[in-house]
Amino acid sequence: xxxxxxxxxxxxxxxxxxxxxxxxxxxxxxxxxxxxxxxxxxxxxxxxxxxxxxxxxxxxxxxxxxxxxxxxxxxxxxxxxxxxxxxxxxxxxxxxxxxxxxxxxxxxxxxxxxxxxxxxxxxxxxxxxxxxxxxxxxxxxxxxxxxxxxxxxxxxxxxxxxxxxxxxxxxxxxxxxxxxxxxxxxxxxxxxxxxxxxxxxxxxxxxxxxxxxxxxxxxxxxxxxxxxxxxxxxxxxxxxxxxxxxxxxxxxxxxxxxxxxxxxxxxxxxxxxxxxxxxxxxxxxx
Length: 286
Ligand code: SF4
Hints:
- By secondary structure, this protein is α/β, with parallel strands linked by helices.
- It has one domain: TIM Barrel (Alpha-Beta Barrel), CATH 3.20.20.70.
- It has 8 helices and 12 strands.
- The strands form 3 sheets. The chain has an 8-stranded mixed β-sheet. Strands 3-4 form a two-stranded parallel ribbon.
- β1 and β2 (33-39) form a beta hairpin.
- The radius of gyration is 18 Å and the shape is globular.
- The model is unreliable at 1-7 and 9-13 (pLDDT under 50).
- The structure holds iron/sulfur cluster.
- Iron/sulfur cluster binds next to loops.
- Residues 46, 48-50, 53, 55, 58, 108-109, 143 line the site of iron/sulfur cluster.
């Protein structure tokens, strides 16, 4: 492993900083500690183009073939260094020294990889070798667009069987909002159907990123639509666990970056109060 030259902080999420291809470690605000990420798209390809995305060179494209043997090797190496404490010393970790999760995240949509299920098996085997008890959970951080594919649904159920959970992106609950913020060719109805399918497959948190775009935070109409979507989800047989409502910690690396700014914490907390009327728990990360 190459030496990390910068301190690992919650605002430094350079996925290549540890010199590995398929895995990386970050300090995660939402996981509240060190998160080991599995990056199935080191080619920076995603099927969405969120205006706030922090992936450099993001482009629409296909996932590359995953070198499962390399993934296994890199996971074993990184987890061993974390367990020995060597990782924290090498990288002068600024924050809680605790491995909080293994997360399928990275530089694209993890479920887009045809080898997503095999990569879950690889991560489960690596996790089983940890001495840490209880074992950290496995998470998938997803835009949810591919949940209806049978292979993805089966993989999510496999995660569920291992005590895993999903963080499902819902930045807007209108067609216009999804097109504007995520540049996603989907509809709010489809996104909600996928969310319901995801919730049925495994424990799921909604994750909603809020920020100011073109000088204004989400409009009252967009916030009302999100509240209605959360209220509808709260009534499902398998409702989401809650909403992770978070502001931007790091700058967008997309062309839209100059049009994006953080919202005031007071605005975020007022939005959380409104969304809480849906009956879902709201976990705020300013
Ligand atoms: S879904 Fe994730 S990786 Fe894809 S564009 Fe959006 S933020 Fe970036």
